[in-house]
């Protein structure tokens, strides 16, 4: 009887040992899976700091780039002056895409970005709410009617470009055209999407924006007064790798992609003008 009990006791011990070994192995497998998932989730992330006007085009570029390179792309959109300041103060960015040359050159003088390349161009239009409360139909009416105008502040690209257009138009509409138009300003915004937002919300009667701001999601809410080529301003969008980029090789691949034929086609789809020196 004693031998029989000892036999059962040995059997129980063996069973507990086997269960313990199984739990240990399963635990190890679970940790390995967790670590594997963590490594996959913690892979390279490309950080792009870009001008607000690039939001829709760069979002599509991001989707294609992520699929091609099996990486994550994080894009910070704001006015060029805002993202420039963030990089200037040491934000961990890989790429800077600016809506004008001035902000790019400011960072280059500080040694914060490398050599830049113009990757697209843009032009301007006058944006109106679809019901046109200001009853504006022609550019020459902008300095002769009482209406509410929204433009960018003078220090941001869309603000500078808008004022350049108004100055250029003085040769056609009179020497006081710019001054008279700006007397109708009721709001100054820090980026172009903020200007178009005021129009879609009907908080103003007109705004000067990029043609690329007339995106599909607002097309039924707005109308435009076209600015002819001889009065318009062709803008330069420029891009560079940040000097202390966490992922410099990946950053250069993003730059090359925006300049590639595929990248240029995506930009053109969003109404940007292509550059001539397309990289094959």
How would you describe what is shown here?
- This protein has 280 residues and is α/β, with parallel strands linked by helices.
- 45% of the residues lie in helices and 20% in strands.
- It has 10 helices and 10 strands.
- The strands form 2 sheets. Strands 2-1-3-10-4 form a 5-stranded mixed β-sheet.
- Helix 2 links the parallel strand 1 and strand 2.
- The protein is elongated and about 55 Å long.
- Total DSSP E strands: 10
What shape does the CA trace take? Answer: elongated
Work out the strand percent. Answer: 15-25%
User: Helical content, roughly?
Assistant: 40-55%
Task: Give unreliable regions as ranges.
Answer: 1-42
Mean pLDDT comes to 86
- Separation, N- and C-terminal Cα atoms: 88 Å
> Could you give a short account of the major beta sheet?
5 strands, mixed
Compact overview of the structure:
By secondary structure, this protein is of the alpha/beta class. The protein has 10 helices and 10 strands.
Keywords:
disordered N terminus; 5-stranded mixed β-sheet; 280 residues; 10 strands; alpha/beta; 10 helices; 45% helix; elongated
Q: What does the secondary structure layout of this molecule look like, with pairings?
A:
Elements: H1 2-41, E1 45-51, H2 55-69, E2 72-78, H3 80-88, E3 95-98, H4 101-109, E4 117-122, E5 124-129, E6 149-152, H5 157-168, H6 170-173, H7 177-182, E7 185-189, H8 192-200, E8 206-210, E9 222-226, E10 235-241, H9 248-259, H10 261-269
Parallel strand pairs: 1-2, 1-3, 6-7, 6-8
Antiparallel strand pairs: 3-10, 4-10, 5-8, 5-9
């Amino acid at each position: 009887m004693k031998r029989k009990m000892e036999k059962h006791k040995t059997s129980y011990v063996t069973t507990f040992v086997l269960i313990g070994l199984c739990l240990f192995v399963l635990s190890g497998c679970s940790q390995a899976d967790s670590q594997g998932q963590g490594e996959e989730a913690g892979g390279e992330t490309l950080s792009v700091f870009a001008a607000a006007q690039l939001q829709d085009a760069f979002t599509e570029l991001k989707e294609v780039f992520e699929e091609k390179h099996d990486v994550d792309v994080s894009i910070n959109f704001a006015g060029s002056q805002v993202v420039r300041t963030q990089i200037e103060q040491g934000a961990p960015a890989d790429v800077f895409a600016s809506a004008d040359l001035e902000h790019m050159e400011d960072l280059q003088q500080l040694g914060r970005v490398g050599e830049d390349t113009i990757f697209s161009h843009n032009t301007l239009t006058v944006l109106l709410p679809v019901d046109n409360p200001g009853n504006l139909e022609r550019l020459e009416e902008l300095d002769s009617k009482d209406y509410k105008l929204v433009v960018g502040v003078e220090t941001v690209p869309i603000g500078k470009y808008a004022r350049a257009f108004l100055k250029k138009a003085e040769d056609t509409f009179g020497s006081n055209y710019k001054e008279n138009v700006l007397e109708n300003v009721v709001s100054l915004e820090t980026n172009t999407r903020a200007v178009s937002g005021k129009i879609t919300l009907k908080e103003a009667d007109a705004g000067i924006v990029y043609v690329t701001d007339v995106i599909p999601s607002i097309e039924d809410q707005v109308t435009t007064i076209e600015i002819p080529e001889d009065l318009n301003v062709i803008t330069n969008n420029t891009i560079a790798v940040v000097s202390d980029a966490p992922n410099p090789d990946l950053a250069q691949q993003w730059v090359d992609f925006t300049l590639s034929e595929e990248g240029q086609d995506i930009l053109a789809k969003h109404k940007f003008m292509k550059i001539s020196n397309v990289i094959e």
